[in-house]
Amino acid sequence: MTETSPRTTPAPRLVDPTFDLLDRPIALGGADDQLLRGAAPQTPLLDGRPVEDPRLVAALSVPHVFTRAEVLDRAAKLGGVLRVLGADGASRLVIARAVPDHVRAFATLAGVRIGLLVVDEATAGPEAAVADDESLTIRPLRDGEDAGQAGGSALQNPVRSVPSHLEGTAVEGGGQVRDLDRLMRDARIVPAPSRPRDADRPALVLDGSPVALAAAAAHLEGLLSAD
Description:
Radius of gyration: 19 Å
Largest sheet: 7 strands, mixed
Strand order of the largest sheet: 10-9-8-6-7-12-13
C-alpha cells in the first residue's frame, strides 16, 4: 500500500506595485526623477487660507512638478490619513471624477498601498462608482462646507505650515466630511508603509471589471506624467 502525502496549499504570491513604482526606484537613486505635473491652483492657499500677498500669489500660482520622492511622500501620507479615518474598516475608496489629476494619482496610489479597492469615477464605469456605507470618498470640498470640526478629533489642528497639494479636497465617509488639506499637514499622522498583499486580490475597478493587484502596475504608472 502506497502512502500519499497530504496536499499543501501553495502560499499566495505577495506584491506591492506602489513599492515597485516608488520605494524601490528611490532606494536605487531615483528620488529626484520628475514623475507628475500638478496644475496651478485656481486659488492659492497657505495654511488653509487664501493667499492675498501678490508676491505669494505669483509664487504659488504655478504648476508643480512632483519628483518620485514627493509622489511617495504624498501617497504614503494620504494612505496614513485614510487609515486614521477608518480605512481599515472600509472596503472601497471612491475617487470623484472632478478631482485634479495629481490628486487622483495620489489617491489611487494611497488606496492600493493600504489595500482598499480603488473605484475611480473617471475609469470605473457609472455603476461601479457608487459609494456605500463601507466606502471612503475623495471629492472636491464644496463651497461653504465645514469639514474641519466634525467628530471632536484631535486631528482638527494642523501643525505644519507647508503646502499639502490637496487643497480644496475632502474625504467623506462614516457620515463625516474631512478637509484633506488640514489632515495632510498634520505631522502626527504616520505615512503608510509598503505592505505586500495577495497578488490576486482586487485592487482597482476599470470599465466595470476588477483588476488584480498583480496587474495594477500599468494603470498606476499611467497616472504619472510630468509632460
